[in-house]
Specification:
With about 290 residues, the protein is α+β, with helices and mostly antiparallel strands. The chain has 4 helices and 17 strands. The protein folds into 2 domains: about 130 residues, Diaminopimelate Epimerase, Chain A, domain 1, CATH 3.10.310.10; about 140 residues, Roll (Diaminopimelate Epimerase, Chain A, domain 1), CATH 3.10.310.10. The protein has a 17-stranded mixed β-sheet that branches. Strand 2, helix 1 and strand 3 form a beta-alpha-beta unit.
Length: about 290
């Protein structure tokens, strides 16, 4: 089927998205959304993006977001995509605060002088919160803050957190030397243990409130410039494991800075940029 539509290109810390406004238009069927995402991501032959965002109407909120990734799957959640959708809705609706429906629930977002501030919800660390992502056996209340992970011939300790997306967290003293794509590909090849794929994050502590992060994203199956849910998980793990002091966490990604706050109930708030890069029109057949 042939489609012609306008789109807007947004990015948050270099994590970039094609955004299609379906608030007033007919929706593209999910099967066709999936097919579009499989080739629109290509930066050489198409627009290029880490995913395609579809913004829809939904009852009781200002809009909903659906993100389809290069593998054709629909993401469970995306922090940078959420900020981009919030920025889009704020401009469209002439508001400074919006509520956005995601697959991980309703998220509140507001514009501040520091950037778009979004409620990321609770950081989840128990086995029951990871049941669809990892097949390891154990009790539902078990903590996943220390799990064994095989990388090549080595077994290392890692943490597994759910921030709307599942994230494995590994600490390192030299983040620049980590072969992210090699490790991410290796871990994601184990579909017996990780049936839906897994996001992999490396973290280096750089100060009492500062961390540097690199993320390999499932669905994209590559290293991204930034990952909002990943940065949230990395900040939470750093605080929960007492590797940094309590307070807002400054997260340095390849594409820029995010600030993550985690309260005493493990609820996370993320603040960061979301910018429209350009607008365009597409004619596409799927």
């Amino acid at each position: 089927m042939k489609y012609e539509f306008s789109f807007e290109k947004y990015q948050g810390c270099g994590n970039d998205f094609i955004l299609k406004d379906e608030m007033d238009d007919d929706r593209i069927p999910d099967a066709h959304r999936s097919e579009m995402a499989k080739f629109l991501w290509d930066r050489h032959f198409w627009v290029g993006a880490d995913g395609v965002l579809f913004v829809e109407k939904a009852p009781g909120v200002d809009g909903s977001m659906r993100l389809f990734e290069p593998a054709g799957n629909e993401a469970d959640m995306c922090g940078n995509g959420l900020r981009c959708v919030a920025a889009f809705l704020m401009e469209k609706l002439h508001r400074t605060a919006v509520d956005v429906l995601t697959k991980d629930g309703v998220k509140h977002a507001e514009r501040t002088p520091e950037g778009i501030r979004v409620d990321m919800g609770l950081v989840r660390t128990q086995r029951k919160d990871m049941a669809q992502y990892i097949t390891d056996q154990g009790g539902p209340e078990d903590s996943m803050m220390s799990i064994d992970l095989s990388i090549g011939d080595s077994t290392i300790k890692a943490s597994l957190l759910n921030t709307g997306e599942p994230h494995i967290i590994i600490f390192t003293d030299d983040i620049r030397s980590v072969p992210m794509v090699e490790i991410g590909t290796h871990v994601n090849s184990d579909r017996i243990r990780f049936p839906k794929g897994m996001n992999i994050n490396y973290v280096q502590i750089t100060g009492v409130h500062d961390i540097s992060v690199r993320t390999y994203e499932r669905g994209v199956y590559n290293e991204s410039m930034a990952c909002g849910t990943g940065s949230t998980a990395c900040a939470a793990a750093s605080l929960m494991l007492n590797r940094i002091q309590q307070g807002p966490v400054n997260v340095k990604t390849l594409g820029g800075m995010l600030v993550i706050e985690i309260d005493e109930n493990a609820r996370a708030v993320m603040t960061g940029p979301a910018e429209k890069a350009f607008e365009g029109k597409l004619t596409i057949e799927v």
